[in-house]
């Protein structure tokens, strides 16, 4: 049996040692004065359901779920918020009335909040997303609802096509094809791959990047600078990593659990240092 030893909130993933969520949540607990003891748990790849069942049978009240378990978390829930249902991917779980588990996805509101903070997004923006994994599933509905057009470029084209089929009813979304693209230049380019690798033939024609194009990397680990280096080569300085998204998605999980939205501005500053 998985023992949760007196903590009531946790992030579950594999690997998990890179996670900054315990630091963020301890700062939220301090800020709000709410008893919120939050740890990280490394889950063996075939033990997600067992670990989560044990956690919620013991002291567990809420959980964050990270790669590679967001899809399994979706099937683990008894009920879903609208955005989690549409995303078919869950990053936040909450035990309700000691009876059932509610699933939510706060990645999209987290990204949108940070893009707004940075002034990187406006309605009608054309956005290129590189990647088509679990994180992209979480952000597509909020970005499309905001009024943006989305193009997806992914190593495995069939995964990008699956997302287009899942989300086309919510707005303008397509697989990126440079031969048929009518875009003059992208307003925003988001890296949502877990491993950004430069290609010899580049990703997109340089002509699709203007001096106003913003670049956003969902990654924030110090050793992941490949995308930033590519942006600089494309001649662009409007760049941000994903620390802000991380802080905002965590704040919205905290809100689901405690009905208080903690402040994130100073937390982003602390994490950046
Ligand atoms: N800042 C935040 O709050 C936040 C939130 C969520 C996620 N993230 C970050 O976003 C990244 C993606 O997360 P995820 O959950 O979507 O992961 P995921 O489900 O594992 O998806 C990984 C994506 O990266 C692509 N990829 C992996 N290795 C590649 C390679 N060698 N070359 C080219 N493409 C490659 C995959 O392409 P294929 O389809 O071809 O396999 C897929 O599109 C992670 O690094 C994660 O830490 C950040």
From TrEMBL:
It catalyses: shikimate + NADP(+) = 3-dehydroshikimate + NADPH + H(+). The active site is at residue 70. Shikimate binds at residues 19-21, 66, 91, 107, 220, 249. Residues 123-194 form the Quinate/shikimate 5-dehydrogenase/glutamyl-tRNA reductase domain. It is an enzyme of class 1 (oxidoreductase). Pfam families: SDH_C (PF18317), Shikimate_DH (PF01488), Shikimate_dh_N (PF08501). InterPro entries: Aminoacid_DH-like_N_sf, NAD(P)-bd_dom_sf, SDH_C, Shikimate_DH, Shikimate_DH-bd_N, Shikimate_DH_fam, Shikm_DH/Glu-tRNA_Rdtase. GO terms for biological process: amino acid biosynthetic process; aromatic amino acid family biosynthetic process; chorismate biosynthetic process; shikimate metabolic process. It comes from the Bacteria. Its EC number is 1.1.1.25. Residues 242-271 form the SDH C-terminal domain. Pathway: Metabolic intermediate biosynthesis; chorismate biosynthesis; chorismate from D-erythrose 4-phosphate and phosphoenolpyruvate: step 4/7. Residues 11-93 form the Shikimate dehydrogenase substrate binding N-terminal domain. The chain crosses the membrane at residues 127-153. Keywords: Amino-acid biosynthesis, Aromatic amino acid biosynthesis, Membrane, NADP, Oxidoreductase, Transmembrane, Transmembrane helix. One of its GO terms (molecular function) is NADP binding. One of its GO terms (cellular component) is cytosol. PANTHER family: BIFUNCTIONAL 3-DEHYDROQUINATE DEHYDRATASE_SHIKIMATE DEHYDROGENASE, CHLOROPLASTIC, SHIKIMATE DEHYDROGENASE. Involved in the biosynthesis of the chorismate, which leads to the biosynthesis of aromatic amino acids. Catalyzes the reversible NADPH linked reduction of 3-dehydroshikimate (DHSA) to yield shikimate (SA). Belongs to the shikimate dehydrogenase family. This is Shikimate dehydrogenase (NADP(+)). It comes from Buchnera aphidicola str. Ak (Acyrthosiphon kondoi).
């Amino acid at each position: 049996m998985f023992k949760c030893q007196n903590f009531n909130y946790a992030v579950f993933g594999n690997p998990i040692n890179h996670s900054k969520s315990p630091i963020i949540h301890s700062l939220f607990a301090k800020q709000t004065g709410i008893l919120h003891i939050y740890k990280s748990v490394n889950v063996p790849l075939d033990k997600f359901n067992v670990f989560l069942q044990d956690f919620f049978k013991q002291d567990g009240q809420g959980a964050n779920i990270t790669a590679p378990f967001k899809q399994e978390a979706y099937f683990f829930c008894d009920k879903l918020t609208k955005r989690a249902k549409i995303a078919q991917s869950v990053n936040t779980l909450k035990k309700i009335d000691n009876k059932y588990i509610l699933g939510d996805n706060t990645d999209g509101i987290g990204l949108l909040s940070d893009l707004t903070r940075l002034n990187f997004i406006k309605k009608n923006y054309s956005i290129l997303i590189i990647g088509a994994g679990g994180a992209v599933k979480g952000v597509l509905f909020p970005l499309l609802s905001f009024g943006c057009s989305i193009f997806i470029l992914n190593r495995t084209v069939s995964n990008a096509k699956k997302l287009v089929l899942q989300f086309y009813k919510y707005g303008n979304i397509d697989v990126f094809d440079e031969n048929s693209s009518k875009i003059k230049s992208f307003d925003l380019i988001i890296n949502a791959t877990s491993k950004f690798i430069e290609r010899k033939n580049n990703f997109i024609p340089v002509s699709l990047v203007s001096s106003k194009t913003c670049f956003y990397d969902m990654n924030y680990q110090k050793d992941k600078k490949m995308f930033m280096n590519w942006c600089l080569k494309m001649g662009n300085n409007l760049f941000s990593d994903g620390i802000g998204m991380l802080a905002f998605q965590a704040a919205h999980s905290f809100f689901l659990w405690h009905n208080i939205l903690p402040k994130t501005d100073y937390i982003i500053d602390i994490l950046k240092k």
